[in-house]
C-alpha cells in the first residue's frame, strides 16, 4: 500500500489570470482542490499523490500552466 502524500502549491499568476489558472490546474491528475487567494499568492492547489515522483510530475505540470509565474510547494506530514 502506497503512502499518500499531501502537498499544497501556492502560485503567483499573471495579472487577471487567476480564474483561468484555477480551471486549468484542476484538470491536472493529483490536484484535488484549487482556490483563489488574496494576498501575496493568487492560487492555492491541494495535491494528493502516492509518491514523490508523482508529486514532481504534478508540480512540473503546474509550473508549465499558462499564467503561472511562480510556485511554492509545501509538503504536509
How would you describe the overall organization of this protein?
The structure is a single chain. The chain is of the alpha+beta class and 77 residues long. It has one domain: 2-Layer Sandwich (Alpha-Beta Plaits), CATH 3.30.70.920. It has 2 helices and 4 strands, in the order βαββαβ. Strands 2-3-1-4 form a 4-stranded antiparallel beta sheet, with helices on one face. The protein is globular, with a radius of gyration of 12 Å. The chain starts with a strand and ends with a strand.
Which short descriptors sum up this protein?
globular; 77 residues; alpha+beta; 26% helix; Alpha-Beta Plaits; four-stranded antiparallel beta sheet
Question: What is this structure's SSE topology?
Answer:
Elements: E1 5-13, H1 18-25, E2 31-36, E3 43-49, H2 52-63, E4 68-75
Antiparallel strand pairs: 1-3, 1-4, 2-3
Mean pLDDT: 96
Q: What's the architecture, going by CATH?
A: 2-Layer Sandwich
Order of helices and strands: EHEEHE
As for the CATH topology, it is Alpha-Beta Plaits
Q: Outline the low-pLDDT stretches.
A: none
Counted by DSSP, the helix tally is 2
Q: Give the strand line-up of the largest sheet.
A: 2-3-1-4
β-strand amount: 35-45%
* Major pleated sheet: 4 strands, antiparallel
Summary, kept brief:
26% of the residues lie in helices and 39% in strands.
